[in-house]
């Protein structure tokens, strides 16, 4: 695939918590961004050094601890790196760190010569976001390959989650690969067209049916999607 960037997947975690962080590299400048740095700082640093890139950017899909708990540690090593989170997320939860830049829905960030479109996709949190590239969507806890994020945390909303999934359906091309913050049986990187046919949360045509199902009682687990 001839494109101007590389995307590297990192499995990080602590005990039973497992996340995916990502490193995005602009091929022209060799500038790099880390998406949702958490848990295993050494894993992240080792990959940055192995790639021989300059970390200039940190992209945060939302403010939950398991997605941001290595931001400050990275900034101690790369103090000039700029951190991006949606304005709504920052305002709602009071997230703060050095070099923090808020963005709004549809705004573009440039990593060297690579454009990154910020999509605010509330639902899991009040200002959760996805980052859209030419061929890839970094979706945090908005949408997983198997389902979507829970909506009963502080600031969460199943109505907004429904609207966010409709936004993804509307704005993201079917070939774009989806890279979420967690895996619940399927590896990241499936094209959106697969999710549109197999992910149950894309099947609801009416918001009230979506809300009833996402918030149904007696689920075997909050991440049991069916």
Automatic annotation (TrEMBL):
Gene Ontology MF annotations: hydrolase activity; metal ion binding
Classification via CDD domains: BaeB-like_MBL-fold
Ranges of residues in domain Metallo-beta-lactamase: 18-182
Transmembrane in keyword set: no
Coiled coil: none
SUPFAM superfamilies for this protein: Metallo-hydrolase/oxidoreductase (SSF56281)
Keywords assigned by UniProt, alphabetized: Hydrolase, Metal-binding, Zinc
SMART domains membership: Lactamase_B
Obligatory cofactor(s): Zn(2+)
Protein name per Swiss-Prot or TrEMBL: Glyoxylase-like metal-dependent hydrolase (Beta-lactamase superfamily II)
Origin species: Tumebacillus permanentifrigoris
């Amino acid at each position: 695939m001839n494109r101007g960037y590389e995307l590297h997947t990192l499995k990080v975690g602590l005990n039973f918590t497992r996340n995916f962080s990502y490193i995005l590299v602009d091929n022209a400048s060799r500038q790099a961004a880390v998406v949702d740095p958490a848990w295993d700082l050494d894993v992240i640093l080792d990959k940055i050094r192995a790639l021989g890139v300059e970390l200039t950017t940190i992209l945060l899909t939302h403010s939950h601890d398991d997605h941001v708990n290595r931001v400050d540690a990275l900034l101690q090593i790369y103090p000039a790196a700029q951190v991006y989170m949606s304005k709504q997320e920052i305002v709602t939860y009071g997230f703060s760190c050095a070099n923090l830049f808020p963005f709004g829905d549809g705004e573009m960030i440039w990593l060297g010569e690579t454009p990154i479109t910020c999509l605010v996709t509330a639902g899991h949190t009040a200002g959760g976001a996805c980052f859209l590239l030419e061929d890839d969507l970094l979706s945090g806890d908005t949408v997983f390959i198997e389902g979507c994020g829970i909506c009963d945390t502080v600031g969460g909303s199943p109505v907004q989650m429904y609207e966010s999934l409709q936004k993804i359906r509307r704005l993201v091309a079917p070939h774009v690969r989806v890279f979420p913050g967690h895996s619940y049986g399927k590896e990241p990187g499936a094209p959106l067209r697969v999710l549109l046919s197999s992910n149950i949360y894309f099947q609801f045509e009416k918001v009230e049916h979506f809300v009833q199902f996402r918030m149904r009682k007696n689920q075997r687990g909050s991440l049991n999607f069916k």
